[in-house]
Amino acid sequence: MAFFFAQFLTGLANAAALFLVASGLSLIFGVTRIVNFAHGSFYMLGAFIGVTLMEILPGHVGFWGSILLTGLAVGLIGALVEMVVLRPIYRAPELFQLVATFGVILVIQDLALMVWGAEDRLGPRAPGLRGIWRIFGEPVLKYDIVLIAITPVILFALWYLISRTRLGVLVRAATQDREMVGALGVNQAWLFTGVFALGSALAGLGGALQLPKGGADLLMDFNIIGAVFVVVVIGGMGSLPGAFIASVIISVLNVFGVTYLPQSTLVLMFVVMAVVLIIRPYGLLGREEVAGEHGQVGAPETPIRPYPPAGQIAVAAFLGLLALLPLFADQFVLILMIDMVVFALFAASLHFILGSGGMVSFGHAAFFGGGAYAAALLVFHFDTPMELAFLFAPLAAGILALAIGWFCIRLTGVYFAMLTLAFSQLVWSLAYQWRDVTRGDDGLVNIWPAEWLSGTVPYYYFTLILGVGGIIFLRHVIHAPFGYALRAGRDSPRQAEATGIDVKRVQFGAFALAGAMAGLAGGIFVFSKGSVFPTELEIAASFDALIVVFLGGVKTLAGGVVGAGFMTLVEDWLTRLEYWRLLLGLVIIAVVIIAPEGIVGSFRTLWARIRHKEDAA
Amino acid sequence: MTLTRRFVLGTTAALALAPAAALAQDGPIKIGEINHYKRMAAFAEPYKAGIELALGEINGEGGVLGRELEFVFRDDQGDPAEAVKIAEELMTREGTVMLTGTILSHVGLALSSFAAEKGYLYLAAEPLADSLVWKSGNPNTFRLRASTWVQAAMLAEKAAETDAVKYATIAPNYAYGQDAVEAFKENLKRLKPEVEFVAEQWPALFNIDAGAEVQAIERAKPDAIYNVTFGTDLAKFVRDGGDRGLFDGRDVYGLLTGEPEYLDPLGADAPEGWYVTGYPWYGFEEGTPAAEFVNAYMESTGESPKIGSLVGYLTAQSIAAAIEEAGSTETEALIGAFEGLTIEDTPIGELHYRELDNQSNMGAYVGTIAVEDGQGVMVDWEYKEPSPYMPSDEEITEMRPAE
């Protein structure tokens, strides 16, 4: 019993830093509706700034003073980021801002490397709090007890701020209806900046508070972000008490998981999240999202139509050029083109459900990697001929999408996104941990194409035909009645239902089709690289696709493809440089600010404006 | 063939007489180096510095085959697919003659498979996975460092000498951690069949919940502990375990724990008394090749060397020696030169690449951690050759797929 209690205390102490970071994220989302992926970066900045300050300021006052100063400093950085990067793009399409926050992550990573160097920093001990107290005979760290004591204080302070001050009233009002708050004369811009700064400060505080238990390193931004999102989603996005309850649940369960199910450390929290979302689609204390509440801003989408003859000729000419490429380009250009086509098909499949279906998936890599793994497993274990194994890639990915979609499709918005993320993490952990079958992160190697495709040129044509064919097929589906039904369900589920469209079934079908097409891309991918590793199933892989779709333009048809091409080229070029992450981050932020409708969307707007002027003249 | 060879040798001799002119004429010999320079900056930077030190020395003495030796450094973001793409570009467009690099084992495995398929040469310097030269080994891949199996076997040998019977293990939950635990268990059980493993902990890599792990190990009441965690996980585990008294009265064996990459950040928190593999650069006798390397490195970079620095240095030395031996930069000739390649004076003495499995004879330093002047160091250390810890030649041949 004493042991249980000691474990419980460990869990509570772990919950402290997690709650601080999560509450910040929840606040920011609640008011600004920004899914802030850079939140982990503020946590990391907090740790590094905290270490630096603690080295300068001595003693008790120095230690606790450093923590407060760190919160202040990170809050200021957060305010700066909000004003420079996010303020210009609040009017952009739904969730577009997360692309900008991704750029911020890259910039902060390289800046932190420049300022603090590559070596990990061990955090200083809290003065006077080294060692243990014995509680019922079990050792409990003194600093853990302090953390456990601090958390309720912070929760209370936040509660007071939100429910007892004027600022809190405005924040709550904005969480419910930010248009109305603006209409009542409140300066929204400063309200948003203030909330963003407060949220960042909380993340910074969390980073500084955990120092005596760990330290500061350059990977901690990505390492915490998964857990933070899980906590915020389980608690209900925007709910502070929810975030608190969820951090405690996750932390305590983790501690018991470590003891009684040591292999579970990778997936436990995602399993919990999946279960909670399946039972309670809006988290423990969240509320239902009203359709169009967030992000349905800006001009309504123009109706889609096939390209005019001039456009069709241009596309045909471009494809002809690609077909002739092996005649004059060197081998590496073909390799780069294969990568690009594979990525374009993957992005197009995500774009299909995201753009036309309005379903934002955070776990699309499960199908890309799933397809790749399906083909690779057949080749690796059964020496299946490549042609047969390849067919299995889209098939298996489609079936996987049917299975995952069955659970996810009943959710909407961010909760849908997070449930797809949870399932993709489950698929990832399966590939990562089931070593007898998948060889874990040693991956499946020597998965090369059949003899007749083994040259670069034949494989280039193979990729071109299937990849471009897949993209054109998806485009065709969008123009077919099925595509119209899908868009109807996106724009107005109720009217669509009233006209006899089974919205959920249409979405389910679209989800499975997108999964199969991603699997096709995965199949082409695995035979071009000769190996597949769990990295292809990681969250990062899902986000690569998500980012290019947004960069290309969600509300366009070619967005995914153009974005993928743009990103492949920019990355290939930038990674040759020393500070490529900084530059790539800045490029992403620049594109986001200059072209808030995405590359294709902004060109279209520009084109329309020019045409309009001509008409007027 | 003879004619070509004689021609090359003749040319080389002629060039050696006038190295300066030759350098201007021929352009450098390029080596493709692919690594995770950003994602694993703490490891990749000292490694790169080691390469650059060796390159300075090699080119200062006239280069190889009378030409300058140059490394083309490229960042793969830690992504195997990206690494394969870059490898393709380096070999087909950049004009590199062979590939080397990567720290992460899975990226190394991807490059190894790629090299075999396309007929290139790949020297895996840092990756530790055993399968790189054994189960997934191929004729195109060579490996420098002592693998997971060998280093774990060295620790198991020491553990078998003690009275401890009940062991707990803690290792990051991925291939390297699982291999490391498996290797330790197998070796220890062979040497001492009565041992039992009472707890196996698998924290997520770089996401350890140290308090919970320490409580779980304490609960199993082991006599001794085998640690594979490293980096930030190690720091948290050591700090939490130290505070709760987990290590009191227990032997602890730490794989790689003594490497400066991991030991330096711990400072005075370094766990005293652990028996570890590592790199005691501070302990070499003046005048030995090992100490000369350390001095040269500190002079050129102003920093103390890490194990990565040594590996980088040996990588460049190996490649230069292989090209000299081959007398050409053709892949076939280079592979032939690497098989059985022997380099006389390296910081670790004679370096040799076995023909059996393309693995070098680089060993490992083992010793006990002590804290001196607020900094962890290895004391009572010794350098161990890897061969006694390897499986038998027959077993290895068995493991290597049809060669």
Automatic annotation (TrEMBL), chain A:
<dbReference type="InterPro" id="IPR001851">
    <property type="entry name" value="ABC_transp_permease"/>
</dbReference>
<feature type="transmembrane region" description="Helical">
    <location>
        <begin position="506"/>
        <end position="527"/>
    </location>
</feature>
<feature type="transmembrane region" description="Helical">
    <location>
        <begin position="259"/>
        <end position="279"/>
    </location>
</feature>
<dbReference type="InterPro" id="IPR043428">
    <property type="entry name" value="LivM-like"/>
</dbReference>
<dbReference type="GO" id="GO:0006865">
    <property type="term" value="P:amino acid transport"/>
</dbReference>
<feature type="transmembrane region" description="Helical">
    <location>
        <begin position="224"/>
        <end position="253"/>
    </location>
</feature>
<feature type="transmembrane region" description="Helical">
    <location>
        <begin position="310"/>
        <end position="328"/>
    </location>
</feature>
<dbReference type="InterPro" id="IPR052157">
    <property type="entry name" value="BCAA_transport_permease"/>
</dbReference>
<feature type="transmembrane region" description="Helical">
    <location>
        <begin position="98"/>
        <end position="119"/>
    </location>
</feature>
<keyword id="KW-0472">Membrane</keyword>
<dbReference type="Pfam" id="PF02653">
    <property type="entry name" value="BPD_transp_2"/>
</dbReference>
<dbReference type="GO" id="GO:0015658">
    <property type="term" value="F:branched-chain amino acid transmembrane transporter activity"/>
</dbReference>
<feature type="transmembrane region" description="Helical">
    <location>
        <begin position="189"/>
        <end position="212"/>
    </location>
</feature>
<feature type="transmembrane region" description="Helical">
    <location>
        <begin position="414"/>
        <end position="434"/>
    </location>
</feature>
<feature type="transmembrane region" description="Helical">
    <location>
        <begin position="582"/>
        <end position="603"/>
    </location>
</feature>
<keyword id="KW-0812">Transmembrane</keyword>
<feature type="transmembrane region" description="Helical">
    <location>
        <begin position="334"/>
        <end position="354"/>
    </location>
</feature>
<keyword id="KW-0813">Transport</keyword>
<feature type="transmembrane region" description="Helical">
    <location>
        <begin position="459"/>
        <end position="486"/>
    </location>
</feature>
<keyword id="KW-0029">Amino-acid transport</keyword>
<feature type="transmembrane region" description="Helical">
    <location>
        <begin position="547"/>
        <end position="570"/>
    </location>
</feature>
<comment type="similarity">
    <text>Belongs to the binding-protein-dependent transport system permease family. LivHM subfamily.</text>
</comment>
TrEMBL record, chain B:
<dbReference type="InterPro" id="IPR006311">
    <property type="entry name" value="TAT_signal"/>
</dbReference>
<protein>
    <submittedName>
        <fullName>Branched-chain amino acid ABC transporter, periplasmic substrate-binding protein</fullName>
    </submittedName>
</protein>
<feature type="domain" description="Leucine-binding protein">
    <location>
        <begin position="40"/>
        <end position="370"/>
    </location>
</feature>
<dbReference type="GO" id="GO:0006865">
    <property type="term" value="P:amino acid transport"/>
</dbReference>
<dbReference type="InterPro" id="IPR028081">
    <property type="entry name" value="Leu-bd"/>
</dbReference>
<comment type="similarity">
    <text>Belongs to the leucine-binding protein family.</text>
</comment>
<keyword id="KW-0732">Signal</keyword>
<keyword id="KW-0029">Amino-acid transport</keyword>
<dbReference type="InterPro" id="IPR051010">
    <property type="entry name" value="BCAA_transport"/>
</dbReference>
<feature type="signal peptide">
    <location>
        <begin position="1"/>
        <end position="24"/>
    </location>
</feature>
<dbReference type="Pfam" id="PF13458">
    <property type="entry name" value="Peripla_BP_6"/>
</dbReference>
<dbReference type="InterPro" id="IPR000709">
    <property type="entry name" value="Leu_Ile_Val-bd"/>
</dbReference>
<dbReference type="InterPro" id="IPR028082">
    <property type="entry name" value="Peripla_BP_I"/>
</dbReference>
<keyword id="KW-0813">Transport</keyword>
